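To whoever picks this up:

The parser on our side crashed when reading a file containing two proteins. I've narrowed it down to the boundary between the first structure block and the second sequence. Both blocks are reproduced below exactly, byte for byte. First block:
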Amino acid sequence: MAILWALMALLLLSFALLPVLRRRRGMIERVHPGHPDAADPADYGFVREEDLDVRMPGPDQDLLDVLDIVQRTQGYRAAAQLLAGTQIAGELRWQRVQAFAGAAALELQQRPGGVSETPGGQWLRVWRAEQPKDAGGAAVHAEFLVQQAWRTSTPGTDDFRIIMEEARDACGQAALLSPGDPVPYVIELSVARGLNYSQPEFEKLWLKILDRTPTHMGAHLAALHYWCEKWHGSRELAYSFAEAAAARAPQGSLLAAMPLFAVFEHLPEVNLVASLYQSEVVTKAVHGALHAVHSARQDDPMLAHVRHLLVFFLVRSERWAEAMDELIRVDGHVGALPWTLSANPAAEFALYRALAVAGYEANGGSPATLRS
């Protein structure tokens, strides 16, 4: 299952692909064993750092079982069956498409092939060759190409453009095979960012998604990056997009948390202002995200993504009890923003968790009060 250790970093490539410099924005010193702030996670029933699962933000045992089969057998049929049985318009299908594409991309990176070696990810090529009209396989192939472009070449180069144009064609083919499926268009959002779609072109693509699934959280996160300052928009445009999504979010939708992601995308690389995380903008965004997670379905596939980002902001805001409340709900899985921006997601998550525990205990908290 070694291939899975990097899956969530790949899963969020179309959402993130942010500079590792983002880690500087936290400006938190590491807590070493023996330090007064170092707490034993076992006291709270937390998973030890070495056992944290960096593969995905939360559990999806069906996906893990199928990925294990695909890796062991190098056959695609279990993957095809899982996608065929996954709701077309749901968040889970998008996440699983990304996971299968990430598995193939990582295999290819580990085994590029040669004279006497079969290249990694061969099962995806066989899938496309044997089932050319399978919509799931077509979507996975399109996402695979997107991930390959970001992983193996530099935006703006000829190699990057060639792969992205191939990915755009693959998105079109996948869309033809499943007209009501938003996933091919969600994949194209990353293509649009890489190929510098004009704003009218991007908005035309975005309307195709809204026509199919207006409340798709994964699609909104992917679209947010286009509007960010570092790509083709600005802080104002990104905030406007996120706030509009939150304003039209129906009851129980995680879209109410979109402003928090917009704030995260525009944090300064070096924060010298201690009150930043208590500012009105951050406080309002955190409040919206807390409302979203408390009103959302507990089986929403995107819920863990929001909770992980909340942990980051709540710790930085020194809202220790609320941070602990989120930690007990996501502990064990760390394959989500902001941890996946680190070279060691488990260590980054464990650091924030230790700080939350230290702050919680310094204000009178204990394992007994947390459990109650």
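<<boundary where parser fails>>
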Amino acid sequence: MLNFLSDTVTLPTQEMMDAIQHAMLGDDVYGQDQTVNELERLAANMLGMEAACFMPSGTMANLASIMAHCPRGSKVLVGNESDIYIYEAGGASVCGGIVYEPIPTQADGRLLLHDLAKAFPVDEEDPQFALPSLICLENTHNRCGGKVLPIAYLQEVKEFAAERNVPVHMDGARIFNAAVALDLDVREIARYADSVQFCLSKGLSAPIGSIAAGTQSHINKVRKIRKMLGGGMRQAGIAAAPGIIALHTMVARLDQDHRHAKQLADGLARINGIELDVQQVQTNIVIFRVTDPRYSWDSFLQTAKSRGVIFSEMGYGRIRAVVHRQITTDDINRAVQVVEEMMKKGPF
């Protein structure tokens, strides 16, 4: 099977597996796991942040970060196409008593400043209104096709937030993809956020975990919330050791995934019955539509899977393909050939 379902399907490298065998272990809830401590120091340093906390998942990292920033009864401003709003089970409302205010998401992943401004009441003393306490950005933006937020835009949002005395949290699940695409040190992206979440288990190929990073005081709160949510882990160095290898060895190779994504987009765009703008592909995510009336999005996915290629649906009938370390140039060619044959022969 060629699995374009997500970059979460990546398997750890042999070096990561070897690191698990030799990890120094301790009880991480008490801060005694040396391997976790090393990972957290490395991640914080790479992002230019004061501190970091190893989390079981990106969902928990985002949730704990939001809860650490936002008082109960306040609002978190999120894109209406963001993963936080759509795919994270409403955790901030359920666990934190925090109101989500969805902001219109532009095709390139931006939340326009004038749309953000509408979420702030004219009279903040009016007791009828829940007040915004956090702005969340997503970079790269999943449902917008792996779009990278421009640095100039990040600076504008940071200045906007500072004027209103609210912090910015970045759901940077694929922030290293953004840094590679911009050919910048990841610090140059993270500097425009007060806190950042990124995933070790997507394109970086570690088997488990994400990182929440920010100021020391913020991470102290995150660590306490992690425990409350059931994310306090014991000998977690077994999971952290591959993360260290991932940060040392997997970032530079992400450019290869981006090139393969372009190759896939180029191939699919030439097929009758497929609608795809190659110019919109910036990182490792390719989103396209099937315009052949013989297929629904569901029948397209089922037929492709029956022929050895797994894609996913990404809302509004769109199809998503995520390129990752285990997808080769030959795999791209084969996937394009399968889709081309499907468009010629029809479903099943």
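After patching the parser it read the second block fine. The first strand starts at residue 2 and ends at 3. The first helix runs from residue 14 to 21.
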